[in-house]
Amino acid sequence: MDKKMSRKEFLAMGAKTVLAVAAVTACGDLIALGADTKNKINEMTVGEDNFITSRAELEKQKALNFVYKGKKSILLYNDGEIKAFENICTHKGGPSKLKQDKLVCQWHGAIFEPLTGEALKGPAPKGSKLPAIELEEREGSIYVKPVKAG
Ligand code: FES
């Protein structure tokens, strides 16, 4: 079956191809934008005074992302307990967010216990833990506990 295409049919096919390529490109951009938006986490950098936030603010927000000594970290409030961990997944380093009562990695879905930082569900290695950050609380404010040198 050898059918010759008219000039009009040829141009119409070309226009459809251009539209299809544009649609795929736009869709790809939207998917990339969606992924970027989904993984974006607002965070503040802890200064020399080691202050992170007030207890009242943390009780309200439940989780707060911060950067301490260049490492992404997360501060969590859970039923009166305050904990902080380096927020670097033990699988491939993704950031986690608090969802209901669990920390969920935004890259591949590993689940961590927010009181201990222990991996509850892969792909993070079983038994691995997010490194804990020691805290101290003074007069309603939460600080990273300074590590003593030597
Ligand atoms: S980086 Fe967290 S599950 Fe893969």
Per-chain topology:
Elements: H1 7-39, E1 44-45, E2 51-54, H2 55-61, E3 63-68, E4 71-78, E5 81-86, E6 96-99, E7 102-105, E8 111-112, E9 119-121, E10 135-138, E11 141-144
Parallel strand pairs: 1-3
Antiparallel strand pairs: 2-11, 3-4, 4-5, 6-7, 7-8, 8-9, 10-11
FE2/S2 (inorganic) cluster (FES) binds at residues 89, 91-94, 105, 107-110, 123-124.
Question: Could you describe the 3D structure shown?
Answer:
- The protein is α+β, with helices and mostly antiparallel strands.
- It has 2 domains: 1-40; 44-144, Rieske Iron-sulfur Protein (3-layer Sandwich).
- The protein is built from 2 helices and 11 strands; from the N terminus they run H-E-E-H-E-E-E-E-E-E-E-E-E.
- It has helices at 7-39, 55-61; strands spanning 44-45, 51-54, 63-68, 71-78, 81-86, 96-99, 102-105, 111-112, 119-121, 135-138, 141-144.
- It has a 4-stranded mixed beta sheet with strand order 1-3-4-5, covered by helices on one side. The chain has a 4-stranded antiparallel beta sheet with strand order 6-7-8-9, with no helix packed on it. A 3-stranded antiparallel beta sheet has the order 2-11-10.
- The longest helix has 33 residues, at 7-39.
- The termini are far apart.
- The site of FE2/S2 (inorganic) cluster has 12 residues, from loops.
- FE2/S2 (inorganic) cluster binds at residues 89, 91-94, 105, 107-110, 123-124.
